[in-house]
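Limitations

Structures in this collection are predictions, not experimental determinations, and the ligand pose is part of the prediction. Treat each record accordingly. The example that follows, with adenosine-5'-triphosphate as the small molecule, is included so readers can see exactly what is and is not provided: the inputs are given verbatim, and the output is the predicted complex.
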Amino acid sequence: MLDVGGLTKAYRQGEGIFDIHFQATSGTIVGIIGANGAGKTTLLRCIAGLLKPDAGSIEIAGNQPGTEAGKCLTAFVPDQPHLFPSLTVVEHIQFKAKAFGVPSDKLEESVGQALEAVGLSAYADRTSGSLSKGQKQKVMLASAYQHQAQLFVLDEPTNGLDIPSRQWLAKWLVDQKAKGKTILVSSHSLDFIKDVADSCLMLRKGKSQGVDQVPQAQDEKIAWGDQVIQRLGGAVQVHE
Ligand code: ATP
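Predicted complex:
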């Protein structure tokens, strides 16, 4: 589903990401972990088609990011949910549905399903400005959900979420994976990655420290987590 090869994006000061390689197949969750400034957002924004790489390739089911097909296949949820404060939840989701070509006779059904999928039906008529961070995050997910993307790209979605919202998100991601979606999720929380991810790309100062399979057994997860902390120079949050 996703094939990233030799991806490089260098900013003027020489920071960025350098020669990143990894793949993600359908029905898997790939975690991306690294300290502040490690390059997680840069990587995800390149994959979402929002930043132009300097070198390397990105293929989303054979399509490039930023092309019509690439955009339809990809849903990007940034770390800060960007919503128009005066639009209601339902207006936001309708807006996104129209932008992605949901036909008008399917709009009501599509929006209703999206709201239900993220548990926001009761908030449909609330203005976005009155929502909590976690609820805004859900509006972003609902918008992504209803354009039937195959690749979800989530940048630090656990930031600012309380424990129930975080548990809800973990379950939602695993449900999407069971439906065959491919999910890339960055986080500072090794615990979250251990809970949800099948594999994990580790970034340090813009360079890959490898891609590991996340072990399934609890004791192996603990040992793996200790290794990851060492490989990332200790600069990763174990608990939120
Ligand atoms: P955080 O966990 O703090 O969100 P991150 O892993 O997402 O960090 P990036 O935001 O990708 O890291 O930043 C990677 C590096 O590139 C950092 O050193 C950052 O200062 C630099 N950088 C990011 N965006 C720009 C930009 N627009 N111009 C110049 N440098 C940038």
